[in-house]
Design goal:
Elements: H1 3-20, H2 27-37, E1 41-42, H3 45-53, E2 57-67, H4 74-92, E3 96-106, E4 113-124
Parallel strand pairs: 1-3
Antiparallel strand pairs: 2-4, 3-4
Length: 125
């Protein structure tokens, strides 16, 4: 392998390693990614209030908390969180959820993080 090819491979490897070490996502990343990972319908907090006022949705459970299993990457954390949301929505008899908050909590001295999600479950037309 030529020297330039080796350098390119090393740069790509370092980039991939560093991106896999991220310990959280920005709010925009979470709000853009989470709805693509759930089967349940994602409803924003602003939409939820309007849908309740017009009787198109009703809250089933407010203040649900889910601690997602730790994934290899933060996207894996979010996938695990999405699975938990879908399971709770189904158990509550709903078809939608409202994300109220989330945070990654450091769980050990190595800096590993775990995703905590707060959400409400809803039933919508």
């Amino acid at each position: 392998m030529k020297k330039s090819g080796l350098v390119s491979c090393l740069i790509i490897g370092v980039f991939l390693f560093l991106t896999s070490c991220a310990t959280s996502m920005s709010p925009v990343q979470v709000n853009n990614t989470l709805p693509t990972l759930t089967k349940s319908k994602f409803i924003s907090q602003a939409q939820a209030e309007e849908l309740v006022k017009t009787n198109k949705c009703k809250y089933l459970t407010k203040g649900r908390n889910y601690v997602a299993p730790i994934g290899f990457t933060v996207k894996d954390d979010l996938k695990n969180g999405a699975k938990g949301i879908d399971e709770w929505v189904e158990l509550d008899g709903g078809n939608a959820y409202v994300l109220t908050s989330y945070k990654w909590i450091t769980v050990n001295d190595d800096g590993a993080t775990q995703l905590h999600i707060d959400f409400d479950t809803m039933l919508c037309e």
